[in-house]
Each structure stands twice: as structure tokens, then as C-alpha cells.
Write a structure and sequence with these properties.
Length: 166
């Protein structure tokens, strides 16, 4: 179930390409709740990203809404690295093949594309309502999703922080 928590984070990353290294997020993640940790050459513009309710409630559905604009190149492969920490303790730190990941996510939500992901889909608004299972602990969760394309170029990086309560 923790894996599904990252599905909506990943969706921000799947549509375009650029050359850059990840950057540290400006300011405090807890202020905004997320940041685009890509460089200035990002070809994916993340316009907004929000969780609600805030804090998330364990045992209920969360709501995630993000708005982004993509550009340039078809995605035909690559990897996504997903990290989830709870109060500094690593819960997930895995890398997945992008096309396998997209196929899995597409089976959960047919709105999600499978490989190859088309070029220049324009502005996208994606809403996702993951269930937060009871086995999650109350506290602060942080994480990231970093997507690389078939040429091992960084596509996008998103970091987030979200509190959860009972």
C-alpha cells in the first residue's frame, strides 16, 4: 500500500525530458509541502501540487491534485527512483523500470498512459485518491520520485513532506 502512495507523485514526472541534475528544494519543504527539485532547464513545469486534507488522515482516502505542463520527447523507457521516509526512517527506497511501473499504475487508473508516452500532451491536471492504510503511523512522511528517461537523462524530480494523523 505504501507503494501506491507514490503513484500520484510519479505521474508528475512521466511526460517530457531535459538535461539537469537534481537541486535542493528552496526553503522549507514543510511550508509548501512539495517542491520541484529539477534544475532550471526542466521541460516539465509543475504549476501546483497539493494534498488534502492536511494533515492526511490514516484510515481514510487522501486527495492529491497536481497541475503540470509537459513538452518535447516521447518516453519509451528509463527508471523511476522512489523514496519514502517516516520520521527519518526509510520505508521505501527502490528503483523501478518506467514502463513496468506505468503498466502497473495504468491497471489501477486507465487515465494513466503506458509506454510509449506521447510528446507534448500540454497542460495536465491529475487527481488521485489513495487510501492511507491503518498500518501507517502518525507522524511526518517525506519522500521523492526521480524519473530518468531511456537515455538516462533526468526527466523530473519531486520532493514532498506530508504529516499524517489518526
Amino acid at each position: 500500500m505504501k507503494f501506491l502512495f507514490f503513484v500520484f507523485i510519479f505521474l508528475v514526472c512521466v511526460h517530457s525530458y531535459f538535461k539537469s541534475n537534481t537541486n535542493r528544494c528552496p526553503g522549507d519543504l514543510n511550508t509548501k509541502g512539495w517542491c520541484d527539485c529539477t534544475g532550471n532547464s526542466s521541460q516539465v513545469v509543475i504549476n501546483s501540487f497539493a494534498f488534502s486534507p492536511n494533515p492526511l488522515i490514516i484510515g481514510e482516502n487522501a486527495h492529491a491534485l497536481f497541475n503540470f505542463t509537459n513538452y518535447e520527447k516521447e518516453l519509451t523507457g528509463g527508471t523511476i527512483a522512489i523514496v519514502l521516509d517516516y520520521n527519518g526512517i526509510s520505508l521505501i527506497d527502490d528503483t523501478f523500470k518506467v514502463c513496468d511501473f506505468l503498466k502497473y499504475v495504468h491497471n489501477l487508473d486507465s487515465y494513466i498512459p503506458v509506454c510509449p508516452v506521447e510528446v507534448n500532451l500540454g497542460m495536465q491536471v491529475i487527481s488521485f485518491n489513495p487510501y492511507i492504510p491503518y498500518n501507517f503511523e502518525t507522524g511526518n512522511y517525506t519522500g521523492s520520485a526521480i524519473l530518468y528517461d531511456q537515455d538516462d537523462r533526468l526527466v523530473n524530480c519531486v520532493r514532498f513532506a506530508v504529516p499524517m494523523i489518526q
